[in-house]
Amino acid sequence: MNGAPQFGKIVIFGVGLIGGSFALALKSAGEVGEVVGFGRRLGSLTQALDLGILDRAGFNIGQEVGNADLVLIATPVGTTPEIMARIAPCLGPQTVVTDAGSTKGDVVAAARAHFGERLGQFVPAHPIAGAENSGALAARADLYRQKQVVLTPLPENAVASVARVRAAWECCGALVRELSPAEHDRVFAAVSHLPHLLSFALVHDLTRRDNRDLLFDFAASGFRDFTRIAASHPEMWRDICLANRTALLDELDRYRAQLDELRDALQRSDGAGLEAAFDVARAARRAWAENKASE
Question: Nearest Cα to 168, choosing from 16, 23, 18, 1?
Fold first, then answer.
């Protein structure tokens, strides 16, 4: 490490996969002096301490948040408003708050309700990285390396506050981009939230069938790849789906219309129509994969 770290003290609410990996990445880069964590369960905090994710477990929010350089809210989005309400009165004048939520419209609304005149100290963000496993044990220092993180700055944000959050994620090795909160939610309803909903739905449907054991016994790589994300955290994805339900319902309706088109083609034995749709999808998927491989 050359010189002092960029962040003297960071406070993290939620020290599982996302928050824990954030802490480990900054520690690995030598860019944080102290990491203090808050969580719902003492056992989780103890585990994070044992794993070297945290330097201290926090017990007094006012004492810890007031002099922090950065506060990260990395809990399920449904708990974000409550945490904002608790930390808002304790913010020091130089403290910047950010989050890691997969939805932004609801988070911004909560921030406007709870931060008031201190709204400019909150910079919304969303790291596009994760895994089906959760908890402190799943955290790793390289989770964000070469992964995208989306910032959705507010008009009230000072340039320096946005720069501080950007710098933190860049220290983690992330590629930082910016969208508006509304655009963010529309994009991720299509490419993240809908796929998770579909994956959960397929596994849930098969689980309720009388011959489920036989079905799962014959499931192979296609099933594994499509349903990997159905092993994700149920509480987190419940909150995400509800928080972004307007955009998600729109995407679900679009997808149902696509399924209806394919069903009609099947019913008509329209092989040419099916092949044409599959060909367009294959070309788009291959182009996307080649783009990702070259990044």
Answer: 23
d(CA 226, CA 87): 39
Choosing among 3.40.1490.10, 3.40.50.720, 3.90.1710.10, 3.40.50.1100, the CATH entry for 7-179 is 3.40.50.720
CATH placement of domain 184-294: 1.10.3660.10
Question: What is the SS3 assignment for 202-245?
Answer: HHHHHHCCCCHHHHHHHCCHHHHHHHHHHHCCHHHHHHHHHHCH
- The count of other CB atoms within 10 Å of the CB of residue 175 is 15
CA distances from 98 to 12, 24, 60, 268, 273 (A): 10, 17, 19, 52, 47
pTM value? Answer: 0.88
Residue-wise pLDDT for 235-292, tens only, equals 889 989 999 999 999 999 999 999 999 999 999 999 999 999 999 999 999 999 998 8
